[in-house]
Design goal:
Elements: E1 2-9, H1 12-17, H2 27-41, E2 45-48, H3 58-66, E3 70-72, E4 74-78, E5 84-88, H4 95-104, H5 122-132, E6 135-138, H6 147-150, H7 153-161, E7 165-169, H8 182-185, E8 199-201, E9 219-222
Parallel strand pairs: 1-2, 2-3, 6-7, 7-8
Antiparallel strand pairs: 1-9, 4-5, 5-6
Helix pairs in contact: 2-3
Length: 231
């Protein structure tokens, strides 16, 4: 059946570290408001997505799970070219397992750098994610930091056509995408056509309850089971 999902939900620490405007003064207050917004909007599945951080999302993960919301733990990576990727991990993985994955990206968190660059390029990151049992989503793919904006030429075509790239995120329907990106998203672009097209998702940054209500904040995903295999 279809589940409403928000696959780029940020932690309170992310909001603080990136100086996002917020009305919340504590992590507990923020987590409660995000969970209540999910319940109000019928969001049954979320993924956490702090930049190369997982411990910062642990209290949000626990609060959501306690409310009956399914949580995919994960993080947002920035490859060495500057491409933003969401790494969605198995719900059974604990914080230590996720920190080891981040270490394989060449990042040792100090809790201070807003968006550190990893050592892996896009293609290497995608191949590594297969070994981690994770799913990759090219985040905000048509915007700043997005795969289709950062890369060009053959590197972009190779990354887009990599079998391990499961999905991308845009803020609305593919038909509203920038003209230079629309043929690629619709699987019609020369050098970009795939046997299995990239799934196009709405999974924009959620750093406040109202972000979950915005167009592009959530999407419906049909799954038989809420798991990596289901995705």
């Amino acid at each position: 059946r279809f589940y409403r999902a928000a696959l780029q939900v940020n932690s309170f620490e992310y909001v603080r570290r990136h100086s996002k405007p917020t009305t919340f003064t504590s992590e507990t207050e923020y987590n409660r408001a995000m969970v209540e917004a999910c319940q109000r909007l019928g969001i049954e599945v979320i993924a956490t997505a702090d930049h190369y951080e997982v411990t910062t999302s642990e209290t949000l993960r626990m609060a959501a799970q306690a409310a009956g919301i399914k949580v995919f733990p994960g993080f947002e990576a920035v490859t060495k070219e500057g491409v933003h990727m969401l790494c969605i991990c198995d719900p059974a993985k604990d914080g230590k397992a996720l920190e080891r994955i981040i270490g394989e990206c060449g990042v040792q968190s100090d809790g201070k750098s807003p968006s550190p660059l990893g050592k892996l390029d896009v293609e290497s990151f995608l191949e590594s994610a297969k070994a981690w049992g994770s799913i990759c989503i090219a985040a905000h793919v048509t915007s700043n930091g997005g795969l289709l904006r950062v890369l060009s030429g053959q590197p972009r075509a190779r990354a887009w056509c990599a079998p391990a790239l499961s999905a991308c995120s845009i803020p609305g329907p593919a038909t509203d995408a920038p003209p230079e990106h629309k043929p690629i998203l619709l699987n019609r672009g020369p050098n970009y056509a795939r046997v299995h097209p990239v799934a196009i998702l709405n999974a924009q940054d959620a750093s406040a309850p109202e972000d979950l209500e915005k167009p592009g904040g959530t999407c419906l995903i049909k799954m038989s089971d809420v798991s990596i295999e289901g995705l």
